[in-house]
Amino acid sequence: MSNNSDKVNLGSILSVAIDASQKAGTVIRQVWKSGKLGVEWKGVNDPMTEADVQAQKLIFGLLYKAFGKDLPMVGEEDTDVPETEEIPNLNLLDQLKIPEEYKNVDKKEVCVFVDPLDATREFVDGNLPAVMTLIGISYRGEAIAGVMFQPFVGNDDDSNGTTIYGMLGMGTNVPVKARDEKDFVIATTRSHATEFLEKATQAVKADRVVKVGGAGYKCLLVLRGEIDAYFFPIPGTKKWDTCGPEAIIKSAGGSFTDAHGRSIRYTIDTPKPNTDGLIVTLKGHDDILAKISSVLPKL
Ligand SMILES: O=P(O)(O)O[C@H]1[C@H](O)[C@@H](O)[C@H](OP(=O)(O)O)[C@@H](O)[C@H]1O
Ligand SMILES: [Mg+2]
Ligand SMILES: [Mg+2]
Ligand SMILES: [Mg+2]
């Protein structure tokens, strides 16, 4: 399958996404170590740095080099895409583990969502474990596969970071454990709370509320069984924040919906804001939806 073919193997795209996220992580660490973050404010509490921009250019360059510039792609930042000298690695995954239905699909029915640096505010504040590169792969509008790469956590092979990936029908590369305690603990925004969020939090009767930055990072806390739910039933996240993490959560058997329990769609034309919020769990999803329904506006 050459890069100008109109067919693609989603397993190969996931391989290049993993490779690109690790290489982007190296760039992010280099910018951090330089001390010259080049922070620009896109909006209130919404920074962009040189690391966000350079990481996105690298990721787009590798995916275009591997699959052609007609690969539908959405990135958070508005950057040009220079030719890259880097070589994309299409062979990181065992093709025997890739579901047959994903091996030869129409490229125009795929869309890759790239958040080159999730939790930029945390990056600027020096809260580095929450920083991640997120890449999601959708097919016919459904989040199918994704990778979350933590450049400042752990020491993953020679990529100096921690790679978490998953694909529907294949599972994840990391052990996943649902939280199983008597109390009910949720994670939500550190910096974008609203009156309605407080009301909704009371409606679901959380025993403890963990306030941390990073949409990807809160999904990781669910995967690791540190919280029962990522609870954010208000606007704020975008499709690039959620496509990759959703695919990983669902490939681990979890649930990922908006506040009304509806699936989130990911096509090139889908509006980027997740206006109806997020609820992310490994278990107990319906119980949360039942409790929050009493305070949600009727559809
Ligand atoms: O990639 P960035 O812009 O850092 O992504 C943001 C999310 O868009 C935003 O929703 C998250 O807000 P909360 O901290 O309130 O959960 C922010 O942490 C980043 O993930
Ligand atoms: Mg941002
Ligand atoms: Mg983000
Ligand atoms: Mg970002």
UniProtKB/TrEMBL annotation:
<keyword id="KW-0460">Magnesium</keyword>
<feature type="binding site">
    <location>
        <position position="117"/>
    </location>
    <ligand>
        <name>Mg(2+)</name>
    </ligand>
</feature>
<feature type="binding site">
    <location>
        <position position="118"/>
    </location>
    <ligand>
        <name>Mg(2+)</name>
    </ligand>
</feature>
<dbReference type="InterPro" id="IPR050725">
    <property type="entry name" value="CysQ/Inositol_MonoPase"/>
</dbReference>
<dbReference type="InterPro" id="IPR000760">
    <property type="entry name" value="Inositol_monophosphatase-like"/>
</dbReference>
<dbReference type="GO" id="GO:0004441">
    <property type="term" value="F:inositol-1,4-bisphosphate 1-phosphatase activity"/>
</dbReference>
<protein>
    <recommendedName>
        <fullName>3'(2'),5'-bisphosphate nucleotidase 1</fullName>
        <ecNumber>3.1.3.57</ecNumber>
        <ecNumber>3.1.3.7</ecNumber>
    </recommendedName>
</protein>
<dbReference type="GO" id="GO:0008441">
    <property type="term" value="F:3'(2'),5'-bisphosphate nucleotidase activity"/>
</dbReference>
<dbReference type="GO" id="GO:0046854">
    <property type="term" value="P:phosphatidylinositol phosphate biosynthetic process"/>
</dbReference>
<keyword id="KW-0378">Hydrolase</keyword>
<dbReference type="GO" id="GO:0046872">
    <property type="term" value="F:metal ion binding"/>
</dbReference>
<keyword id="KW-0479">Metal-binding</keyword>
<dbReference type="Pfam" id="PF00459">
    <property type="entry name" value="Inositol_P"/>
</dbReference>
<feature type="binding site">
    <location>
        <position position="76"/>
    </location>
    <ligand>
        <name>Mg(2+)</name>
    </ligand>
</feature>
<dbReference type="InterPro" id="IPR020550">
    <property type="entry name" value="Inositol_monophosphatase_CS"/>
</dbReference>
<feature type="binding site">
    <location>
        <position position="241"/>
    </location>
    <ligand>
        <name>Mg(2+)</name>
    </ligand>
</feature>
<dbReference type="GO" id="GO:0005737">
    <property type="term" value="C:cytoplasm"/>
</dbReference>
<feature type="binding site">
    <location>
        <position position="115"/>
    </location>
    <ligand>
        <name>Mg(2+)</name>
    </ligand>
</feature>
<comment type="similarity">
    <text>Belongs to the inositol monophosphatase superfamily.</text>
</comment>
